Transporter (Anopheles arabiensis), 636 residues
Amino acid sequence: MDTSSPDEIEDCSTKLTVDVWLKRVERRRQLAYASEYDFCNDQPMNDEALAKRGSWTGRYDFLLSLLGYSVGLGNVWRFPYLCYSNGGGAFLIPFTVMLVIAGLPLMFMELSLAQYVGLGPAILFKRLAPISEGIGYGMILVSGMVMLYYNVIIAWTVFYMVVSFEDPLPWRGCQHEWATVNCFSYEEEDNCLATNRSYYMANCMSREQYRLLNVTLRTPRKPPAEEFFKNYFLQISAGIEETGMINQRLAICLLVAWAIVFLCLSRGVKSSGKVVYFTALFPYVVLAALFIRGLTLPGAYDGILYYVRPDWDKLRTAQIWGDAAVQIFFALSPAWGGLLTLASYNRFDNNCYRDAIVVAISNILTSFFAGFVIFAIIGFLAHELDTSVDSVIDQGAGLAFVVFPELVGKLQMPRLWSVLFFFMLLTLGLDSQFTLMETVVTAVLDTFPVLRRRKIAVVAGVSIVGYLGGLIFVTNSGMYWFQLFDKYAANWSVLLIAIAECILVGWVYGCERFISNIEEMLGKRSKWFHRFWVTVWKYITPAMLLFILCFNWLQYKPVAYGRYIYPNWADVFGWIIALAPFGIAVIVAVKNMSTSSSPFAWQTIRKLLQPSPEWKPSQPRLASEMAYENSNGIEL
């Protein structure tokens, strides 16, 4: 029998909305407080098993982890290129619009969902609506596939950071075994011309020797950094069909990368939450240092102008809006399971609304600032090579492992800047990898709670599987597999899952009901808050996601790497990994319906669309209330 007085009840309910709480107080009076539940229990988790999940221990652990997950390599090596190719500063307008109507709503939705129930995606959707159980599994599969090849990038940065201590840098000049006749070093050419000789096919020769060669065609020029990356570092084969051998150098670096991830996650969010204080903030220090140094270089001003000069006519094209939508969606990474995983370790009353806004704004500012840094140093490189900016700009791995290494050789103290740059890439990559890994580990622990006592063993097991799965990316054909996974692994299924998520929360579970749950965590919100988020979650965001999906399909081109065209079987495999996560969601939905005596009857579907009895908030007091209401057939 609950003998709490109304005053005592209200004292333990300060986090609820006034209207909701008054209704519950009145209902309890009518029921004469007849209950075996403890309505004033304010412990952070809803049962003994969930209490062992762990939680963030520091005040800013979650915020910095979320920032590190959302601000990654794409902000440095993809956004500047998109901004340059889509009207410079004009690109910020559609980018901001897409952030408000697509990126931020999905981030806030997922953070609120997971924080409310304190569960990761593997269990959350099963309890939210049993028919949607497969959505969580699809998210985990996406994170698992991305986790495999994303850690390969970290392995690359580990290698480049280590060899950056060599003097001279190993990619300087063409006088190496890995250099081909196409290798062209401007530094060697200048030295050769200074002795009144000719530079051709990576050799310095006399004018007579040059004349006897009867040169009629210019060979394609490739910088030493590109030759080093492909011929020495990757030892790349002619195509994906030629797997070749495992590159031992890369295999060791990949092992080191997985060892770093394992050590940082061995104690779950308690350990990773402390590491992110460094990994999330250090990249800003390096970016600031590179920016200051870049401004002192000749040609930097021209590079920055090339980056920000607005072309307002671009705003009339669909391309700029489509690119902005795709970039913000994949920058914040909703529907991957990572946001749900991070938020599931939050306190029930954490202000996830504030966190979502802070991270979203930080993402835009970081991306734009990174563009200034990249284009300042690219402007200098173009000045040094006496060529235009557009001839040296690149994105992705080409920018990080070809353009920048070529650049640092022309700076004073090249080893220092090389070490700083690749250490920055390492920390940017680790933040995202931590969350991808934690998503998979959390899925295992939520599904099999008995394993929580052996979390180190689980993390070790996932790391070993991840390492073995990543070995395909360190073979001679590894770069081709990398490009294949990078294009398909987190593409259409992620968009389809996000659309299904919006429909599930906005229309099936109900926006008003969901906002009521948010108010239980954050307190009373304004009517404007209600109207805005109901409109966005039910109409605007799903429509925008559908636009992104259609835009991606219309812009689809088979994967290619340089001039290499992938065989048909590789494209088929790419489509399989692209649609597999959403396919799992559909298969699990059909399986759950088929367990009923009337599998596809409306009554069965309607029942599977309702929250299960286990759907309850992570705050025990509210969970007790909900359990009491369910057991007595009471509706609020």
Observations:
- The radius of gyration is 28 Å.
- The beta strands are 198-200, 203-205, 560-561, 564-565.
- The longest strand covers residues 198-200.
- Residues 1-18, 25-51 have pLDDT under 50 and may be disordered.
